[in-house]
């Protein structure tokens, strides 16, 4: 039976950037005659210019490097489009190590690698892509701007950098006011900051765009729980969990625990093996304890979604 991955991090879509144009190999650094002795003269004449054969060899080496670079990019994109994100990221990484990626292709690499690497590494790679794009002064298309801001926002939200993530999602919405992933993610960030009414406004806009997206419904339910409306939160989580969305079922278990319904919480974890259900229950109870001790509900739900990621590696239906 195939392994099913339970995604507990708050649902966000990954934007993959289409391939860009060819990239010239970077030139070697040219040292000034102020730092090196002048080329020795022959019979009183200036240093000789490179011979025709030397020029031909240099051109041939550049052409061969360009061919290998193009082949590497083509392979990375094929692997990415086939869903082999880890393998694609490794090919991009090799090209990056050889300094063969243009700024837009570095952004392409970051968007692909974000699916398989840690949020910290993802933030670093998107940050480097942004710096390279700024240095190049290249005018970004709306799609590239969305990929950059969305990638930064998702990484920052996962790392708890909520205020910064909000600015990134606003950047996305400036390019596309109906960008569903950004609306959903912005709602999550607002909830974590305690701005529950504003958060539900974001979720309502996202749900209007796609009523069948139960990830938005899951986040709307958490928003109600965060503002103390446990009955509405549980009702919505039941609806989302009925679709088989594992994240919603785990959140439902936590909602039951917060409402004092421990038996129902255990039943909500019935999709897990007994061993994994016990492990999940202990973890969820620790969050309930912190919430009862005064920790913000929204922040604890966000932390719980990150902490329970290990379950997705161990869960088998």
TrEMBL record:
Pfam families: TPR_19. InterPro entries: TPR-like_helical_dom_sf, TPR_rpt. This is Tetratricopeptide repeat protein. TPR repeats lie at residues 180-213. It comes from Uliginosibacterium sediminicola. Keywords: TPR repeat.
């Amino acid at each position: 039976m195939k392994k099913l991955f339970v995604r507990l991090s708050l649902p966000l879509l990954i934007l993959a950037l289409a391939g860009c144009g060819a990239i010239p190999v970077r030139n070697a650094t040219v040292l000034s005659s102020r730092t090196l002795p002048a080329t020795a003269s022959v019979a009183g004449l200036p240093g000789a210019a490179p011979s025709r054969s030397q020029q031909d060899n240099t051109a041939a080496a550049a052409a061969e490097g360009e061919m290998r670079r193009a082949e590497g990019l083509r392979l990375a994109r094929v692997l990415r489009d086939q869903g082999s994100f880890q393998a694609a990221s490794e090919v991009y990484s090799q090209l990056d190590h050889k300094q063969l990626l243009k700024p837009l292709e570095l952004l392409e690499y970051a968007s692909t690698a974000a699916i398989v690497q840690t949020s910290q590494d993802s933030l670093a790679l998107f940050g480097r892509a942004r710096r390279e794009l700024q240095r190049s002064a290249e005018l970004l298309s709306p799609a590239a701007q969305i990929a950059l801001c969305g990638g930064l926002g998702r990484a920052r939200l996962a790392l708890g950098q909520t205020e910064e993530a909000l600015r990134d999602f606003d950047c996305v919405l400036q390019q596309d006011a109906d960008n569903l992933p950004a609306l959903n993610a912005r709602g999550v960030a607002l909830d974590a900051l305690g701005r529950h009414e504003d958060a539900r406004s974001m979720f309502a806009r996202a749900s209007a765009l796609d009523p069948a997206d139960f990830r938005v419904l899951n986040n709307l339910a958490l928003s109600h729980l965060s503002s103390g409306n446990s009955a509405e939160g549980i009702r919505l989580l039941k609806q989302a969990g009925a679709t088989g969305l594992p994240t919603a079922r785990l959140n439902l278990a936590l909602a039951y625990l917060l409402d004092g319904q421990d038996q129902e919480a255990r039943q909500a974890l019935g999709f897990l093996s007994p061993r994994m259900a016990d492990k999940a229950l202990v973890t969820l109870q620790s969050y309930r304890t912190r919430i009862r001790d005064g920790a913000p509900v929204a922040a604890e739900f966000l932390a719980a979604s990150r902490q329970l990621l290990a379950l997705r590696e161990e869960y088998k239906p």
